[in-house]
Amino acid sequence: MVAPTNVRLAETVEVSLRTFAQRTAQTKSSVINTALAEWLAVQAHPRIHFLPVITGERRACLIDGPEVWTIADSWLAHSKAERDPAIVADAIGLTTAQVETALDYWADYRDEIDGLIERHHLAQDEALASWERRQSLTDA
Fold first, then answer.
1. What is the pLDDT of residue 2?
2. Is residue 43 part of a domain?
3. With contact defined as beta carbons under 8 Å apart, do 112 and 67 qualify?
4. Which among 44, 132, 124, 45 is positioned nearest to 77, based on CA atoms?
5. Does a structural domain hold residue 41?
6. Which burial class, exposed, middle or buried, applies to 47 when counting CB atoms under 10 A from its CB (0-12, 13-18, 19+)?
7. Residue-number span of the structural domain to which 102 is assigned
8. What does the DSSP assignment read for 88-137?
9. Average pLDDT for 113-135
10. Around Cβ 124, how many Cβ atoms within 10 Å?
11. pLDDT > 90? residue 4
12. Has residue 125 been placed in a domain?
């Protein structure tokens, strides 16, 4: 559900917002919504920040580490008996605190992180299938 909200912006903020929205082919509303959603997420999870990736998406990352989805994916790759922050941290070269930070964010933004994991697994499957097709050319 969308709820309209009136906000008065300082003139300099309005000019910067309009310029950014035009440059990135977004609406001002979209820019404000993304910025506010990220700001609220960072308020709840202070060790998280957002970085743009090549696709144009902005992804949650540890301030001092990798994207959150990569840690969640590693967590899922471990057997249930080994799903412990210290075990996963040791396996991927992070601190237990970093893994716990990622798990906390993942718990609050499950759909976002699960969606990223799913898209990356699909991309990996497509890349493998492409490589196998290419290999079949040399076997022919």
1. 79
2. no
3. no
4. 124
5. no
6. middle
7. 66-139
8. HHHHHT--HHHHHHHHHHHHHSHHHHHHHHHHHHHHHHHHHHHHHHHHHH
9. 95
10. 10
11. no
12. yes
Q: CB–CB of 17/2 below 8 Å?
A: no
Q: Read off the amino acid at residue 23.
A: R
4 assigned to some structural domain: no
Number of domains the chain contains: 1
- Average pLDDT over all residues of the chain: 94
- What residues form DSSP beta bridges with 105? none
Tell me how crowded residue 68 is: count the other CB atoms within 10 A of its CB. Answer: 24
Q: Residue 87, Cβ neighbours under 10 Å: how many?
A: 16
- CA 77, chain centre distance (Å): 18
- Residue 124 structure tokens: 């990996």
Q: Return the number of other C-beta atoms located less than 10 Å from residue 105's C-beta.
A: 25
